[in-house]
Specification:
The structure holds 2 protein chains of 2 kinds. Chain A is an alpha+beta fold. Chain A folds into 3 domains: 167 residues, Reverse transcriptase/Diguanylate cyclase domain (Alpha-Beta Plaits), CATH 3.30.70.270; 70 residues, 5' to 3' exonuclease, C-terminal subdomain (DNA polymerase, domain 1), CATH 1.10.150; 143 residues, DNA polymerase, Y-family, little finger domain (Dna Ligase, domain 1, 2-Layer Sandwich), CATH 3.30.1490.100. In chain A, strand 2 and strand 3 form a beta hairpin. In chain A, helix 11 packs antiparallel against helix 12. Chain B is globular. The two termini of chain B are 13 Å apart. Helices cover 0% and strands 64% of the residues of chain B. Chain B has one domain. Chain B has no helices and 8 strands. In chain B, the strands form 2 sheets. In chain B, strands 1-8-7-6-5 form a 5-stranded antiparallel sheet, with no helix packed on it. Chain B has a 3-stranded antiparallel sheet with strand order 2-3-4, with no helix packed on it. The chains are: A alpha+beta, B mainly beta. Chains A and B meet through helix 1, strand 4 and helix 4 of A and strand 5 and strand 6 of B.
Chain lengths: 410, 89
């Protein structure tokens, strides 16, 4: 199997807007170009950096640092509060460009996506993929702005395309084929491989694998039976050789939101209001996907007593904000004092089915209609046009922040 | 952290409407103080739905500071909502 590399034509393209939010800010505000910029969720000295521009990264600024720490490394650092509508706009522009080349486009997050050209038109397939990649880069500059840059990676599977996109940041374009696969791995560290972090690194190190090339040369049986002890060993064996194993969609298993309290020692009723606000957001998220939930979990991180969580599984599904908050509120009665951060998650999600099946049919049908009517109004006239009187005023604090991760709600 | 000033000023704007990807381009605007600002570059234009009203947000610069202009497509009004300058060196 050592030479069983996928030698097909590379037709999977990964596009990655590195330092996306900072780059978009530098595009929007020309005076910021060439300067170290950090995007944060709240404009304070102690807030954590969500995205840093390349200029900031060059000074050693890393994600997760506080603005105060980062300013010691990059004295002129400009910290900006995140502006999700702007990033959503760029996301949709990028998606529209990508959709022009293939019907098989999948956005992996707000700042990266994959184009599968294998079923594209003959006209597209006749072109050199490198030219297509360069054209997409140019279109991004023409259609969004001249400061926009993206990394393009091309490979025979999603894994190699993503790996190629990370080789020359920013603004790189690389292709990994069966011919240069070994040479590419030879330039990388084990943890440069997407999906290999602390835990997997330890597993591999335990059997004497310290480099990507050693990982590539490991035999299938060892990966399956000793390292990963599951089908993941087979997946890694194929993935590293350029065979596709990641063309899968996963159903939504949970939906949640968290919020770091804006003040120290907020009274209990104020924390509860913010919890209610989170429940409204989570409820809308769940319903927007045509789902209902059976489980609610509530989490709190405190200043002195670590973290706390509690969960509840109902016998019948629920969907309304009131139902989610009623469960969350009951759980939250046990929460410790000195709370710093709160989170609410709905889980055990399933497809929405007719509420009339319950013996409480009339009540549920009525709750269903009212909830849907409120969602319709909020979608048409703006978020939170109708919300609970309890959360009046919380919108000033609990704003929608950067939509990282799933693109389901874009 | 004091490099941004959030405003809500009604401004008079001269804009060019043409073809292409950005058919509306603010060229210059006058603030209530009478100060005129000539736009040297449009950084980004993005729409923002405020309920069923569509507001087009233009992030622009005059080469000395960055500004945010908002065009309400229903009321046909322009507002200056942000001025950002004095970036620390």
């Amino acid at each position: 199997m050592k030479n069983d590399y996928n030698s097909a034509r590379p037709l999977v393209m990964h596009i990655d807007l590195n330092s996306c939010f900072a780059t978009v800010e530098q595009q929007a505000r020309p005076m910021l170009r060439g300067r170290p910029v950090a995007v944060v969720n709240r404009r304070t000295e102690h807030t954590m950096i969500v995205t840093a521009s390349y200029e900031a990264k060059a000074c050693g600024v890393k994600l997760g640092m506080s603005v105060k720490e980062a300013r010691k490394l990059a004295p002129g650092l400009v910290a900006l509060e995140s502006d999700p509508p702007k990033y959503r706009y760029v996301y949709h522009k990028l998606l529209a460009i990508m959709n022009d080349y293939s019907a098989h486009v999948r956005m992996k997050s707000i700042d990266e996506g994959v184009i599968d050209f294998s079923e594209s038109t003959e006209k597209i397939l006749q072109r050199d993929m490198r030219d297509v990649g360069m054209e997409i880069k140019q279109r991004l500059r023409d259609e969004v702005g001249r400061a926009m840059r993206c990394n393009v990676g091309i490979g025979t599977n999603r894994f190699l395309a993503k790996t190629a996109a990370g080789l020359h940041k920013p603004d790189g374009l690389d292709i990994i084929t069966a011919d240069n696969l070994r040479d590419t791995y030879a330039t990388m560290k084990l943890t440069d491989i997407t999906g290999i972090a602390d835990k997997n690194q330890k597993r591999l190190n335990a059997v004497g694998i310290y480099t990507p090339l050693e990982f590539l040369d490991a035999d299938l049986a060892s990966l399956q039976k000793v390292v990963f002890k599951s089908v993941n060993g087979d997946y890694w064996h194929k993935r590293l050789r350029g065979w596709e194993v990641d063309k899968r969609d996963f159903p939504l298993r949970s939906a949640g939101r968290q919020y770091v309290l804006e003040g120290y020692k907020l009274p209990y009723y104020a924390v509860l209001k913010r919890l209610h606000h989170l429940c409204e957001d989570v409820g809308f998220k769940v319903r927007s996907q045509g789902l209902v939930a059976r489980g609610v979990s509530v989490y709190a991180r405190t200043y002195q007593h670590g973290s706390w969580h509690a969960k509840y599984m109902a016998s019948t599904p629920f969907f309304s904000n009131q139902a989610i908050f009623a469960h969350a509120q009951r759980l939250f009665e046990q929460a410790p004092e000195g709370i710093k951060m709160i989170a609410v998650t709905c889980y055990e999600l399933s497809e929405d089915t007719s509420p009339q099946l319950s013996i409480f049919g009339d009540e549920l049908a009525s709750e269903y209609s009212v909830t849907n009517a409120i969602d319709d109004i909020n979608q048409r006239y703006g978020k939170r046009v109708i919300h609970s009187a309890d959360t009046l005023g919380t919108g000033h604090f609990v704003k929608q922040k950067i939509p990282f991760g799933s693109t389901r709600y874009m | 952290m004091d490099d941004e000033i959030f405003l809500n000023e009604r401004v008079e704007v001269i804009a060019a409407f043409g073809e292409g990807l950005n058919p509306c381009r603010p060229v210059k605007f006058r603030r209530p103080s009478g100060r005129e600002i000539v736009v040297s570059e449009i950084g980004l234009r993005h729409p923002s739905a405020q309920g069923k009203r569509m507001v087009h947000i233009f992030d622009v610069t005059d080469g000395g500071a960055d500004y945010r202009l908002e065009f309400d497509s229903e009321r046909l009004t322009w507002r200056l909502t942000l001025e950002a300058d004095h970036y620390e060196k």
